[in-house]
Specification:
The complex is a heterodimer.
Chain A lengths: L1 H4 L11 H21 L6 H22 L11 H13 L3 H32 L7 H9 L7 H8 L3 H25 L3 H9 L4 H37 L8 H10 L3 H24 L9
Helix pairs in contact in A: 2-3, 4-12, 5-8, 5-10, 5-11, 7-8, 8-10, 9-10, 10-11, 10-12, 11-12
Chain B lengths: L1 H23 L6 E21 L2 E5 L11 E15 L2 E5 L6 H9 L6 E6 L2 E2 L7 E4 L12 H5 L1 H6 L3 H14 L15 H13 L5 E5 L7 H17 L3 E6 L2 H7 L2 E5 L6 E6 L11 H15 L1
Parallel strand pairs in B: 4-9, 4-10, 7-8, 8-9
Antiparallel strand pairs in B: 1-2, 1-3, 1-5, 5-6, 10-11
Classes of the chains: A mainly alpha, B alpha/beta.
Bound molecules: adenosine-5'-triphosphate (ATP) and magnesium ion.
């Protein structure tokens, strides 16, 4: 099944090394000029990051251009880049991305809902649940993939097992941060709502949620990071075979297709950054802090 | 017995002297005998458990404790009534139970014995008709603007659109924070924050305003300004204020009546009626006389 999908290992590169390096240089210059012209639009950290990344890519490309490294073990950026474009153009990459993102977001949303609900409940009545703390701490320290075998026994090979361990990976950071956030609501703030005629539900909406929002968001960002680790681990371990970036990486490794392995890694990196940025944007919804 | 007679005496005194007070307050009318609050024989104790160098003070007795708790009596046999439109201050040494009594009036805590009635009905939990102004600056929500903070009460009450807007705008005018509607608390000074706290409490026109050392953390100049502010607000709206303070001058400057408490257990030592028209002169001999009298009471 694999062979029919997978492109041959020796593929035409879309661009050669000199052109690649030239384009990088051109982009750097454009960005620098853009920063000079519109200081608002281009942040210095973006410019610096881009410069450093371009430098590293150039060194990597040159090392392979001069045949100082074995291209079978470490293919040059041009080839990885061409491969990503190629895999996309034949429609092979998209289903992997979709299936990984779907697994991750499914489990992440489940984790967010369950962890925030439970966290608020336990944070609200924290005194009464203090005995649970050591239990939660122990559970938190078990890496989610350690549950893999058990998950497979419980849910079988397939979707449910993957979702389960990804959920587990996301759950604890969100949960613990929520509990912590809820505890930051001060009695005087709760009493303020009560003295103006609010009930417990108003306290939740007017105080608990705004106070813990940033903590929940921090938890969500950490949880998403662990979620990425778990989803790729699950796919590498073939918990749910036949789709996903992790599966693509693992399957190409078996075929010694390091180009596709690297392509997968880079796509995961880009998607991870994008999802994190998305969560970071949510910070703006509640203002007035610090 | 003793306390009861003190109560009656002061009530008579007030009846005698009221003409002066009312005219001085302008539109303000204090309705004698129409009680907003009746406090009857209220006592409040906490239970102190100490073990392993740790001391825990709880409200309820613990059922499963081997240790016998020692009882901490915060308030003892307090009897007092507050008339409609009055400005009453609680004055007393630290730890004498002023805040505790105020929190009982707000409905956050319940007396261990005795009754507290608001307009004839026993107080059962917080009620928007008894709005509290907290001392802590954190009571003003940092995630809401000035406007958002002030409209909290109407929002919780379900007051709708136009009425709410109008009330909030009026209140902001009253606390002289026009132009700061959209500012977040972190950009305001301590005095402005405290005005927001006051505004938030008066926007719903509560029957009773409860203030727990609202200006305790401010510098003298700001505090004097805010005191005048509170007097103006009190004169312009139809409500009573209970004001907790440990500042003798503040109590003498603001109130119709000062309730002086003894040190723990807190009892009413004396009720002093301040018979001076507003605005009061801090340096006038009458004022100083009241102040010295209060200071004497506190000292012993
Ligand atoms: N929630 C509580 N739990 C346990 N003990 C309390 C509680 N609230 C008050 N107390 C005790 O009751 C006593 C009176 O406290 P309260 O806060 O009423 O004093 P206060 O007169 O307001 O003093 P201050 O002027 O310092 O604010 C104190 O000894 C305190 O330890
Ligand atoms: Mg106090």
């Amino acid at each position: 099944m694999h062979g029919s999908y997978f492109p041959a290992m020796e593929r035409e590169d879309i661009i050669g090394s000199p052109l690649f390096i030239f384009i990088l240089l051109l982009l750097c210059v454009t960005l620098a000029v853009a920063r000079w012209l519109f200081p608002r639009a281009v942040s210095p950290s973006l410019l610096k990051g881009f410069l450093v990344a371009s430098g590293l890519l150039t060194v990597w490309e040159i090392l392979l251009f001069l045949k100082l490294l074995n291209p079978v073990l470490l293919p040059p950026p041009t080839r990885v880049f061409s491969n990503i474009v190629y895999l996309w153009s034949i429609g092979f990459l998209q289903p992997q991305i979709v299936s990984t993102l779907f697994r991750l977001s499914y489990a992440f949303v489940l984790a967010l809902l369950s962890a925030v609900t439970l966290g608020i409940l336990i944070g609200y009545f924290s005194g009464r649940f203090s005995s649970l703390e050591s239990l939660i701490d122990a559970a938190r320290l078990i890496p989610a993939p350690a549950w893999l075998s058990l998950a497979i026994l419980w849910f079988g090979i397939g979707y449910a097992s993957a979702i389960f361990i990804i959920w587990l990976g996301c759950f604890f950071p969100i949960f613990l941060n929520t509990v912590n956030g809820v505890s930051k609501a001060e009695p005087v703030q709760v009493e303020t709502v009560l003295t103006f005629g609010g009930d417990k539900f108003d306290v939740l909406l007017e105080v608990i949620l705004p106070v813990s929002y940033h903590h929940i968001l921090t938890g969500a960002r950490i949880g998403l990071g662990i979620g990425w680790i778990t989803v790729i681990t699950a796919e590498l371990a073939s918990v749910d075979i036949g789709a996903g970036l992790g599966w693509m990486i693992q399957d190409s490794r078996i075929l010694l297709d390091t180009t596709t392995v690297l392509s997968g890694i880079i796509v995961v990196g880009m998607l991870g950054t994008m999802t994190d940025l998305l969560l970071k944007k949510c910070e703006r919804f509640v203002q007035g802090w610090s | 017995m003793m306390r009861a007679s003190v109560e009656r005496n002061t009530a008579l005194q007030r009846a005698d002297n009221f003409a002066a007070g009312v005219s001085a307050a302008g539109t303000k009318t204090i309705q004698n005998g129409r009680h907003v609050i009746e406090i009857e024989n209220v006592s409040k104790s906490f239970f102190v458990y100490s073990s392993n160098g740790e001391t825990v003070i709880t409200e309820k007795k613990r059922f499963f404790s081997r240790k016998k708790p020692c009882e901490l009596v915060a308030l003892k046999d307090v009897t007092l009534s507050i008339d409609h439109g009055e400005f009453v201050s609680f004055l007393g040494p630290s730890g004498c139970g002023k805040s505790t009594l105020l929190r009982i009036l707000a409905g956050f805590e319940y007396p261990s014995s005795g009754n507290v009635k608001c307009k004839g009905e026993c107080i059962q939990g917080p009620h928007p008709q008894r709005a509290m102004v907290f001392q802590s600056e954190r009571a003003v929500f940092p995630w809401l603007t000035v406007e958002g903070n002030i409209s909290l009460g109407p929002r919780l009450q379900g007051t709708e659109g136009e009425v709410r807007k109008e009330r909030v705008a009026k209140t902001i005018e009253l606390i002289e924070l026009k132009g700061f509607e959209k500012a977040y608390p972190k950009t305001l000074s301590g005095g402005m924050l405290q005005r927001v706290a006051v505004g938030r409490a008066i926007v719903n026109h509560p029957e009773l305003l409860l203030m727990d050392e609202p200006f305790g953390a401010l510098d003298a100049q700001t505090r004097n300004n805010l005191q005048d502010h509170v007097i103006r607000i009190w004169q312009s709206i139809d409500q009573s204020i209970v004001f907790v303070t440990h500042d003798i001058e503040e109590a003498a400057y603001l109130s119709n009546r000062v309730i002086v408490f003894t040190a723990r257990p807190g009892r009413i030592r004396e009720v002093v009626t301040i018979n001076l028209p507003h605005p009061r002169e801090r340096t006038s001999p009458e004022f100083l006389e009241y102040r010295n009298h209060l200071a004497d009471l506190i000292r012993h």
